[in-house]
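Q: What would this complex look like in 3D?
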Amino acid sequence: MEHKVLGIHHITAIAGYAKRNYDFYTKVLGLRFIKKTVNFDDPKTYHFYFGDEVGSPGTILTFFPWEGVPRGKQGSGMPTEIGYAVPNGSFDFWTNRFTEYFVNVTGTGTRFGERYIAFEDPDGLPLTLIIPKIEDNRKPWETDEVGAKVATTGFHSITLTLRSVNETAEILTDIFDYKFVGQEGNRYRYATNHVANAAIVDLLEAPNEMRTGNAGGTIHHVAFRVKDEEALMAFREKVLAKGLNITQKIDRNYFFSLYFREPGGVLFELATDNPGFSIDESVSELGKNLKLPAQYEGHRKQIEAVLPSLA
Ligand code: ZN
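A: Here is my prediction, written as structure tokens for the whole assembly.
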């Protein structure tokens, strides 16, 4: 059986204040808060997951909120923009909403024949809303203020900024089976046809861009989606065969993961569909309760006492 990379699984970024991050993504953008847990390596801090109703791969945006972390700079060797798909006809709604909530809109325009609005979250993380040429038929999460006619259906694309795109492109094409789609200026677009959505990776070539470290408002890594652990381990062999280092399989509670740094400096993860976010709470309860991995359950009281309030 041929194993496939099925587009983006999730994207993980760094935020400053937890409540500000929670408010922006649940209220302003209208995403569902699908999991409230802790950073497994630093259980005094949160790990947030936002997505659609069930946390489908291709909709999952995760944050490590560190109270008061300094704001970072976008640079080379990192993902630098998250593209969300929104329905045709939704831009008036979003433009008004961004004015109402004082969201920093950084530009509007057209890329590869698709209109976009570029903006930043409260930590300066670059995001875009994009109207895809081919209608995105994924079912969005709806809130009182952000209904299905305007709500995002999930990721459209991720942009990686690189000093040189060639070696990264080779990982996408040779290992992940992405195809070159086209070039606009210094933006090189790659996509997989194994999935209909969250299928695009843009490589932005910026030879003079500095490498910067992760801080508030920067993206830590992008995870690509595979079906199961068998596929995960098959890709581990392919990455090793390219002469790159890759981790052992890691249990992330809601998926299994591998991490490797691609030659352009971006941290890539491969993550499985299984077991998913309803493993420790029902779909209707997702995000309602603080979920802790088994090793921290005995310290729940102390952990709850130090985590910032979201109320
Ligand atoms: Zn991840």
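A: To summarize the key features: Helices lie at 18-28, 91-100, 166-175, 229-241, 294-297, 300-306. Residues 10, 12, 221, 223, 269 surround zinc ion (CB under 6 Å).
Q: Very helpful, thank you.
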